[in-house]
């Protein structure tokens, strides 16, 4: 098995670290690819959601686009697959451009008081020696001035106190850490799991702009660092002694369709991705400490 990639905290990268410079170069490269190429920036963003009318979709796009899972217990595993494929595409692109072969997606852990501003690479007008505007700088309602903008409520990690992954689809009921037991669900504001509501939704809506709408969110390069943190918090929660569902309805009954980093159609179930080190991608996080301290 290859050495697992290490996903690192973006706020703690050394001054000499080139992770974000290579990210910007890879984003720029992906943006030059034709939108029909499943490894292009536009195509990858459309897998989450798109403003294009579904009646214009090709047969392939009908299966692959506008698939993000929300307000369901598939929220976490679906986004884990989405990130795994994206990280693969970026890392292949970084290597092709002459960068390191072990590039890994960094995560933005916005909960500590010192990390509540966008990382400077996302607000600089120019970056990484690229021509024109920095591809990491896009339209946002807040954050582009480089100042901290997230309050305590937005970055609260109370979701980690939930012992149950699965919740119930009952109005006002317990939606669980990971979301209510239900079939695949593309959109939906209500009945979200606790991690999906806070901090996930709060970060999306506080940044606003592209991030404020699921149909455009993945066009903002910060989306991927935000979701890497959400994926990390799932691992933090597990490491605290909590367990994923064992119900086959969650583990293996639902197959999600994607194209892998080589463009080949591929399906995944949550069972395929519960182990980050031994799954289809091999990665780990540099910090899985319980941020709540010793909670009794
Ligand atoms: Cu999101």
Please, could you describe this protein's structure?
The structure is a single chain. The protein has one domain: di-copper center containing domain from catechol oxidase (Orthogonal Bundle). Helix content is 30%, strand content 6%. It has helices at residues 19-31, 41-48, 59-64, 75-96, 194-207, 222-239, 248-251, 270-273, and strands spanning 5-7, 166-167, 179-180, 256-259, 265-268, 283-285. The strands form 3 sheets. Strands 1-6 form a two-stranded parallel ribbon. A two-stranded parallel sheet has the order 2-3. Strands 4-5 form a two-stranded antiparallel sheet. Helix 1 (19-31) packs across helix 4. The longest helix has 22 residues, at 75-96. The model has no long low-confidence stretch (mean pLDDT 95). It binds copper (II) ion. Copper (II) ion is lined by residues 200, 204, 217, 227. It comes from Chromobacterium vaccinii. InterPro entries: Di-copper_centre_dom_sf (IPR008922), Polyphenol_oxidase_cen (IPR022739), Tyrosinase/Hemocyanin (IPR050316), Tyrosinase_Cu-bd (IPR002227).
Mind telling me the CATH class?
Mainly Alpha
**Ligand names:** copper (II) ion
Q: How many helical stretches?
A: 8
Shape: globular
Query: What is the helix/strand order?
Result: EHHHHEEHHHEEHE
Q: Round the Cα radius of gyration to an integer and report it.
A: 18 Å
* Largest sheet: number of strands, sense, barrel closure: 2 strands, parallel
Please report the total strand number as a whole number. Answer: 6
Percentage of residues in strands: 5-15%
Protein name: Tyrosinase family protein
Keywords: Copper, Metal-binding, Oxidoreductase
Family: Belongs to the tyrosinase family.
Cofactor: Cu(2+)
């Amino acid at each position: 098995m290859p050495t697992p990639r290490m996903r690192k905290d973006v706020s703690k990268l050394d001054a000499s670290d080139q992770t974000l410079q290579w990210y910007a170069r890879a984003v720029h490269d992906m943006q030059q690819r034709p939108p029909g190429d499943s490894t292009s920036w536009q195509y990858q963003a459309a897998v989450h959601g798109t403003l294009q009318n579904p009646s214009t979709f090709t047969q392939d796009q009908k299966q692959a686009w506008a698939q993000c899972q929300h307000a369901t217990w598939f929220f976490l595993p679906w986004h884990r697959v989405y990130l795994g494929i994206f990280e693969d595409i970026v890392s292949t692109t970084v290597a092709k451009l002459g960068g390191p072969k072990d590039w890994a997606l960094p995560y933005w852990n916005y909960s500590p008081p010192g990390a509540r501003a966008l990382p400077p690479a996302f607000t600089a007008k120019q970056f990484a020696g690229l021509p024109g505007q920095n591809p990491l700088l896009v339209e946002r309602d807040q954050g582009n001035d480089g100042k901290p903008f997230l309050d305590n409520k937005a970055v609260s990690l109370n979701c980690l106190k939930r012992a149950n992954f699965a919740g119930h689809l009952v109005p006002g009921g317990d939606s669980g850490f990971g979301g209510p037991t239900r079939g695949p669900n593309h959109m939906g504001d209500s009945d979200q799991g606790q991690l999906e509501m806070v901090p996930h939704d709060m970060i999306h809506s506080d940044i606003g702009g592209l991030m404020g709408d699921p149909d455009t969110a993945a066009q903002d390069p910060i989306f991927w660092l935000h979701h890497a943190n959400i994926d990390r918090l799932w691992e933090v929660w597990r490491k605290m002694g909590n367990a994923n569902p064992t119900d086959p309805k969650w583990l293996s009954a639902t197959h999600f369709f994607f194209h892998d980093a080589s463009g080949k159609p591929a399906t995944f179930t949550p069972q395929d991705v519960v182990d980050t080190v031994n799954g289809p991608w091999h990665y780990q996080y540099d910090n899985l400490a319980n941020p709540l301290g010793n909670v009794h």
